[in-house]
Amino acid sequence: MKITDIIDQAACTFAPAGPVAGFDIGSRGSKGVLLTPDSIYTVFIPTGLYMQETADELLARLLKAAKLRRRDIGFVVGTGYGRISLAYKDLPYQVVTEITCHAAGAHALNPRTRTIIDIGGQDSKAIKVDPATGKVLEFVMNDKCAAGTGRFLEKAAVLLGLELDQLGTVALEADEPAVISSQCVVFAESEMISLRARGERHKDGAARANIAAGIHFASARRVKSLLGRVGTEPDLVFTGGVANNPGMRHALETLIGARFVPSPIDMIYAGALGAAVHAGRHHAAAVKAGTARPPAAAPRKRAATAERKPALAEIS
Amino acid sequence: MAQPQSSLAADLLPIHALIEAEQKSFIESEDARKRAGYFCAYTPPEILNAAGLRHARLFKAGTPEIVSAGERYTQSVFCDFSKSCIGSFDQEDGDPFYKSVDKLYTFHTCASMKRASEVIEQFVPTTLLNLPRLRGEAASRAFFREEIVHYKNDVAELAGRTVTDGDVSAQIVLYNKIRRLLRQFSDLRKRPSPPLNGLDFLELVRGFYYLPPETLLSTYQPLYEKLARVPDDGARPVRLMISGSIMADGDRRLVDLIEREIGARVVVEDHCTGLKPFAHTLREDGDPFAALADGYLDQAPCARMKPLEDSLDFSTGLAEEYGVDGVIYVYLKFCACYGVSKLEFLDRLQSRGIPVLELSSDYSVSDIGQIKTRVEAFLEVLEGRREDIAPLLADAGQPVHG
Which of A220, A247, A262 is the last residue of a domain? Predict the structure, then answer.
């Protein structure tokens, strides 16, 4: 997809001088973003057992979609919990934490972003961003437990006999969200089981919706507590895989009392996009310093133009 | 026995070896000298040394096994350190070093440590002593002096000898020398390129709590002179202060992560197992018991002391004195002192423009990945600030080629 399809050309500060890639190797899913001077490509696959293989698979799919060769890639940045195991012999690369990357990704799409809630497979974070630079000012991550994370919602969906992507939609049908007080996934599971046991057969649909909504509110309360130090200054942006869950979005907006700004792309890719933005910056610095990999025959006219005048200087 | 710490600078290895030998001798030596142990940095070793005892601070912890041994006796809401203190005395799974202690003295600070001492009484004779909270009150000082006299009498009885005022005064002078020397070591870390890292300084402090003071002075002095001569190597590492609760002997994973994996430096500690207990020197004249009472109440305060304002002032003052880029405020889960006052610390540091990362931790190993992500992200924030402060250095972010 063209970058100009998702963001005003005037607002775009992240188009790289040449093709660069960002990988966000998450606990559940892995995301890849490839940026060229005018296009953005995304890919999602479940995280495999071996992180490097997962990253190789992401790169292969992105290259195929963009009709590029491996040696065209100017720089790779890896993020996410699997970032540590990333290593390339043939590509310049760096690893950056997902906190910095989510900020960079959200900022690239919407430079007015000041507050980010990111909910992924195994953790949730609140990030305060400097709108002038896209840099992180402050962040808070959840404790080492699953409440308030995608994993918690996955467990809940299984118990309710729902697919994960149905859970949020079902929750929106609730007329009276169940009260789930446990902050612990294991205890919340027992609460759900007893709530389910109480549900009368003919009311099954309503009971399920109410339990689903209760689960989202329990998670959202947990996430909201992260905002204590970070604040809720607008624009407020929701990133990570759980951003696609309308039940969670609704619960968070209700509890925070503010709305998330709609995003031009699926925000599961925010971290990978931020990683690609960082890759673009490193590539630009290398071009400037004359240490960039020799460009493998500039694929497009625009790339050559961009290399002379890197558009990236403004975001650093 | 503590794990050999291969991460220490070569210059520190002889000191590490001395500490290990001293611990072995503490356990195995068949001399007639009694062994005294204590938990808290508010316990004056001056008295123990004046009585000629073998003595050591008992602050080994950091492994989940010892925590489990202590969990037999506690609720889950005790911190892992207090559980480890109990577990180390456990007759089956305990630490031989702890089990060789003849008597435990503890000026207790928090409720968990007080209760831990009460449990430990079944394993080893224990004297629990009171430490006043209101450090500014004249009545606190008079009372604390009485507690210290009581402690001295108890110690003298254990040692089977008398301890005179003159003996105590001489020890105050001796320990002051060590405090000054440790401060001098720490001062070296104010240089832009510190000649010793945080792990090294923690080892020096560890030596303070295990080595006889005479041995310590004779080995530390030449090391200080050597380090003072180390030229600036031009490196400008990110400078961090660690603030918060105890960093036990054996709990090195955070500093390891910061210094060995990420490449930043811990240049100062605002906790009771780093620089903090050495920031103050005692009065050397007059009544030695009053000098101990005043000196220990005037030392950089634990967060359990009142007013908390004093702890906050000390913390920010230290961060500014050492020119740190940021502070990592780390406390053990369920710590009733540092866990509960965390917001006051975070707010105070941030109000002075000092970025701070809050970490809650324990001695399990499962959270190391998350701690790593937090610390790395914090370092990215600090590096970003440095770039903003010195835009000309922005180009130093050279790509790393694989």
Answer: A262
Residues A170, A247 within the same domain:
yes
Domain annotation covers residue B2: no
Domain final position from A262, A277, A298? A262
**Beta carbons of A143 and B360 less than 8 Å apart:** yes
- The answer to ipTM > 0.85 is no
Q: Can you spell out the DSSP letters for A228-294?
A: HHH--PSSEEEESGGGG-HHHHHHHHHHHTS-PPP-SS-GGGHHHHHHHHHHHHHHHHHHHHT-SPP
**Residue numbers of the domain that contains A277:** 3-102+269-315
Which has more confidence, A294 or B123? B123
Q: Do A285 and B370 touch (CB under 8 A)?
A: no
Are B400 and A289 inside 8 Å of each other by CB? Answer: no
* A288 in reach of chain B (CB within 8 A): yes
Pick B380's closest partner by Cβ from A92, A100, A285.
Answer: A100
Alpha helices (runs of H) in A31-139, residue ranges in sequence order:
51-66, 98-109
Q: What is the pLDDT of residues A180-209, one digit of tens each?
A: 877 666 777 787 778 777 765 545 677 889
The residue with greater pLDDT, A120 or B143, is B143
pLDDT digits (tens, 9 = 90+) for A109-156: 999 999 999 998 888 999 999 999 999 999 999 876 677 788 888 888
Q: Please check whether residue B401 lies inside any domain of the structure.
A: no
Give the helix/strand (H/E) hosting B293.
helix B288-298
Which CATH number fits the domain that encloses residue A254? 3.30.420.40
Residue A255 forms contact with B (CB below 8 Å): no
Peptide bond into B307 cis (omega under 30): yes
